[in-house]
Write a structure and sequence with these properties.
Elements: E1 2-4, H1 7-33, H2 37-60, E2 62-64, H3 69-75, H4 80-89, H5 92-97, H6 106-109, H7 112-149
Antiparallel strand pairs: 1-2
Helix pairs in contact: 1-2, 1-7, 2-3, 2-7, 3-4, 4-7
Length: 150
Amino acid sequence: MATNINKEAVKKISKNWLAQAESDLKSAKYNLSGKKLDIAAYLCQQSVEKALKSLYIKINNKLWKTHDLVKLAELVKAPKKIIGLCNDLNPIYTEDRYPDYSDIIPAKKFQESEVKDFLYKSKEVLKWTKENLKSLESSESSKRKTKSKK
């Protein structure tokens, strides 16, 4: 499901989603260092979801309401490597939110090495997303300059 966003508000809303994605990633690192592995894992997934939504908003002037990282990555035309990272992170949302998802509650499910891997993958997706947001900004800036010269 998508919600349209006023064109004038797109830039601010997209930046807010990215800022929250970066904050979630910092909080994931903090929780990893405090051995709160389930929270760190969840925040890794959330940081990627919010970053991809930031890019989706910038491209489409609307918010797509989903938690499916693979679908979001496909919608923003991410390369296979990024889609693969999203596929690895995708199950965290369900595994970490619902204690009845498996026999092991989320608080005891994740290993430190696994969460470190999630953190690495999340950083890679955020890096790619920021590069694409920057590229879009440059492209828009060039278009505005071209229009003003006419």
